[in-house]
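Suppose a colleague, Dr. K., hands you the sequence of a protein chain of 653 amino acids and asks what its three-dimensional shape might be. Before reaching for any lab equipment, you can write down a predicted structure in token form. Begin with the sequence itself:
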Amino acid sequence: MARDIPLGNGRLLVASDSNGLIRDFYYPHVGEENHTGGAPFRIGLWEEGFFEWLPGSWQCSVGYLDATLVSRILWTSSARGLSLEFNDLVEFQENLLLRRVTLSDSAGRVRRLRLFFAFDFNICGNDIGDTAALRPETGGIVHYKQNRYFLINALLHGRIGFDQHATGNKQRQSGEGTWRDAEDGLLGGNPIAQGSVDSVAALHLTVAPGASESLWLWVAAGDSWATVRQQNQLVVKRGPDRLLRRTYDYWRLWASKEEGDTAGLPSAVAQLYRRSLLTIRTQIDRNGAIVAANDSDNIHFNRDTYSYVWPRDGALVAHALDLAGYPELSCDFFRFCAAIVEPTGYFLHKYTPSGLPASSWHPWVRDGRRQLPIQEDETALVLWALWEHYRRYRDIDFITPLYRPLIKNGANFLMSYRDNMSGLPLPSYDLWEEQLTVALFTVAAVHGGLTAAANFVAAFGEEDLADDYRRAAGTIREAVIRQLYREDGSGFARGLLPHATGEGAQLDPVVDASICGIFLFGLLPADDPRVTATMQHLHSVLWCTPGIGGLARYQHDRYYSTGGKAPGNPWFVTTLWYAQYLIARAVTPTELEPALKLLEWCADHALPSGILAEQLDPDSGEPLSVSPLTWSHATYVATVCAYRDRQKVLRRG
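The predicted structure, expressed as tokens, is then:
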């Protein structure tokens, strides 16, 4: 199930599903230590002997308030004559999740209700050795293990604390969990439990005929009891309404930082642009780590997640943030990269949000021989994005500490990791992390990285070194044209077949959207006839007809395949690459219109909350794989910026 509502502040990330139930709770790093394991925080309603877990059969809509990171989740039941609205937020400075619940009667009678909140923590990602306890000095319930504390509390009619509570064991023998204790409307009141535990608490309220009543719930996260108790006191002293208002105002200001950047765009495109920026922000840790995605349901696919930093994805996200006018976030990412890069200048497969090497399926030994288990485009694109950042902002004091460890070491690695005969980069794992090969996307990225490095070292007065980097980039460009271009009119190949190197090596026949790298990083311009031939062939083969449209990743792609007659599942990233191609080659405002249609296509196929998945079912349009994918949102932002900038140029004429 997708994560329709991510909320975060760079330390605490909370994500809810399409029913509005909290499913992921990350702290103290975005994407690291999920303290729920994907289990939902259930909500139950009791009235006059009738109990149900919500939303159940209730109608549910999930979204946000305006351009903010404050949710609006609405559950309604015509049969019950009730509605519940939830406004959730993560306080932008404090590690606090706050929830305002408004219950409204539409049946025209007095409602005496009990609302139950169940909390199923798996602290540090497991349920061994947890404790749940009532702390009477606060009126709240604390879940803790080692140095992870979560204090839950509530406010109703000026009174702090809960009307009922219970703690207990879960998944033990025949017991599912303490949450079952709520189903008779009464809780046992057990004050403490240890081991594999959960808790449930209730508030009692009366709603007048045709009226509404509101209550507040919050969870404070911290590394000690003293910390969460202090945060609890902050909520009590300042009032949750005030914290909601200041968080609402903060994100409204943040999302509209660049005035006029969406002027003239269709409303749906402008809204998704803002939502994409806010969604990207939730996926970035305070230390600069840009996490690919945080959707714990993916664990069920391969017992791992997307909650890691891929330097390639991060570089492309940082570039989009630079285009949108948020350089402070990209600067943090580049500092993060400088801290994790290997001394010899390359990046490993992926990293944890705290900066440690992460799980990998790339081996250090292949066919009995040692190899570097890398994707070389990750190293190259960090350099490319860093130069694009500097070219835009000219912040030399920021660049200087990165010059030797990141720029020069990275470029020297790219120089050395090449085939002496062809001049092309040596085989590494491709963009999709599936083949050890010489992939066009990687080659184009290395060309872009070496060109960026040449510009940097020239700016620092090392002209001889700049010439070396430029010559290497030129050699790569010539080799691409000579070795990877098909003369049959179908354009460039996606690369050489695995292990094929040197002159006359066999071309990979699979049509792949990653071929867009040929123009994305400056190897050839988008209006080059050879690029035009490539993109026309790409579109003819990979456009998802029959189906919803959009561009598939590559022919016969089996990742989350749903079968059917479409060439594959459409991805937002690949579809937007095609839009960027249309934008880059447009010479009149009219020629921009097809690209705008693709931006609108993305908005049409986003989740109702504005979240973009990795890929879609080609027939139904349902999201597949993780949601949100940070890369999808970043590519949308970058494409809107490219469209806006190109439109301005063409209008000036």
